[in-house]
Amino acid sequence: MPQNVILETRSLGRDFNGFTAVGTINLSVKKGDIHAIIGPNGAGKTTFFNLLTNFIKPSRGQVFLDGLEITNKSPSEIANLGMVRSFQISAVFGHLTVLQNVRIALQKLDGQGLNFWSANKTLNKYNDRAMEILTKVRLESAAEKLAVEIAYGQKRALELATTIALDPQIILLDEPTQGMGNEDVEHIMQLVKEISENRTIIMVEHNMKVVAGISDCITVLARGNELASGNYEEVSNNERVIEAYMGRKKRSST
Predict the structure, then answer these.
(1) Rounded Cα–Cα distance for residues 104 and 110 (Å)
(2) Are residues 229 and 217 in the same domain?
(3) Is residue 136 helix, strand or coil?
(4) DSSP of 23-76, one letter per residue?
(5) Alpha-carbon distances of 226 from 38, 44, 80, rounded to whole Å
(6) CB 3.0–4.6 Å: which of 19, 94, 159, 230 could bond 148 by disulfide?
(7) pLDDT by residue (tens digit) across 131-151?
(8) Residues 112 and 180 in one domain
(9) What is the mean pLDDT of residues 160-171?
(10) CA 239 – CA 133 distance, rounded (Å)
(11) Are residues 76 and 95 in the same domain?
């Protein structure tokens, strides 16, 4: 792997009973990038995410994380190596406060496991770090609220907070702005941009405003195969991408 590449797939694919959900994808993600995976419905984006983290075993191909092959490692092993999905590791429990949710994630990072029965005085040592993380995602004022009581956009921010608490190298985000209003979308965009400092972000996202606004690189999938990869201007002007999204070819300028 080139030095600046942190994640690479080689001919990665998956078939289901004769149907090809993901063909043979060769993806390279650079360290520190926000790399978006986009495509029409049914393009294979979520299946591809599941292959990266081995929630679904590939029919072919390999996955490499920072030069180490992780194709056959379990999801928990992959998380411990530093690549996590927000839903995979987020400890968002409605009956606990926002602060307690982040403390649980920090407890896991500390090698203590998720011990719900620990005395408060035992977990208080995580308070300062937890508040630092909550401040980063602008949830410090909600620290003592139950997670079930906060707004939807705040819940997504809390998921990011518990993800950050595990200090991963790579964060995989599946539709981070799904179901949000404009104000929440702007908030999550800014949060993703901020947490990408010293980290790599790979996200599946339908909102083109988000993709255009914060992505360094974009890979477009269609019918389980890669159509194009590049920056927003490059992929948005690619004739194959336009045809896949719009069902038509780009008009000639003449």
Answers:
(1) 10
(2) yes
(3) helix
(4) EEE--EEETT-EEEEE-STTSSHHHHHHHHTTSS--SEEEEEETTEE-TTS-HH
(5) 10, 10, 29
(6) 94
(7) 999 998 889 999 999 999 998
(8) no
(9) 90
(10) 43
(11) no
Enclosing domain of residue 20: 1-82+168-254
Q: What distance in Å separates the CA atoms of residue 211 and residue 34, rounded to the nearest whole number?
A: 9
CA angle at 222 for the pair 157 and 68, rounded to the nearest 5°: 65
Are 162 and 176 contained in the same domain? no
Stated pTM of the model: 0.86
Rounded-to-integer distance, Cα 73 and Cα 53, Å: 8
Judgement on whether residues 157 and 31 belong to the same structural domain of the protein: no
- Rounded distance between C-alpha atoms, residue 165 and residue 156, angstroms: 14
The amino acid that residue 47 corresponds to is T
The two most distant CA atoms of the chain are separated, in Å, by 73
Identify whether residues 174 and 239 lie together within a single domain. yes
Q: Do both 4 and 76 map to the same domain?
A: yes
What is the tally of structural domains in the chain?
2
Query: 90: pLDDT confidence band, cut at 50, 70 and 90?
Result: very low
Backbone φ/ψ region at 199: left (φ over 0), alpha (ψ -120 to 50), beta = beta
**Does 227 lie in the same domain as 197?**
yes
Question: For residue 162, what are the contacts with CB-CB under 8 A and spacing of at least 6?
Answer: 89, 90, 91, 92, 101, 102, 104, 105
Q: How crowded is the C-beta side of 48, counted as CA atoms within 13 Å?
A: 33
Token pair belonging to 239 = 């004739």
3-state secondary structure 187-250: HHHHHHHHHCCCCEEEEECCCHHHHHHHCCEEEEEECCEEEEEECHHHHHCCHHHHHHHHCCCC
CATH code at 74?
A: 3.40.50.300
